[in-house]
Amino acid sequence: MGLFSAVDIAGTGVNAMQTWIDTTGGNLANANDAVSPNKPTYAEETTVLAANASPIPGQPGVGVRATVALGSNKGILAYDPSSPLANAQGLVREPNVSTSNELVNLIQAQDGYQADTAVLQKAVAAYQSGLTIGS
């Protein structure tokens, strides 16, 4: 694997981590969006990371890709009789989003993003050093 490959692979990692950060941010922003019990609520989004297949059969993958999968929009029923959206029993439907899990996801995505950008910085430094050879 050459330096160009390192930049390409780290670049896919940066993009995947940014998708994860964006997805987590959306989940956190909508975690408390209650609706009437008879309506669908915000569907939690999950970032799915997978290896990019190599263009050469039998060779290792070349980076990572991220897709976003939608969860259920059924949510959970919560007792909140003070809500204007509550039914006669005092129930509202809330998204099934765990704020603590989302914060852990955010930390993991940030760590991955920092690692990938560190690889990019090292590759740039190596390229710059290579360009000065022979000058």
Describe the protein.
With 135 residues, the protein is α+β, with helices and mostly antiparallel strands. It contains two helices and four strands. A two-stranded antiparallel sheet has the order 1-2. A two-stranded antiparallel ribbon has the order 3-4. Helix 1 runs antiparallel to helix 2 (99-132). The model has no long low-confidence stretch (mean pLDDT 91).
How are the elements arranged and paired?
Elements: H1 3-30, E1 45-51, E2 64-70, E3 76-79, E4 91-94, H2 99-132
Antiparallel strand pairs: 1-2, 3-4
The end-to-end distance, rounded to whole angstroms, is: 26 Å
Pattern of helices and strands: HEEEEH
| Structural class by sheet pairing and helices | alpha+beta
Whole-number mean pLDDT: 91
Number of helices: 2
Low-confidence stretches: none
Short description:
The protein has 2 helices and 4 strands; from the N terminus they run H-E-E-E-E-H. It has about 140 residues and is an alpha+beta fold.
Kindly list the characteristics that best describe this protein.
135 residues, 16% strand, two-stranded antiparallel sheet, two-stranded antiparallel ribbon, alpha+beta, elongated, 2 helices
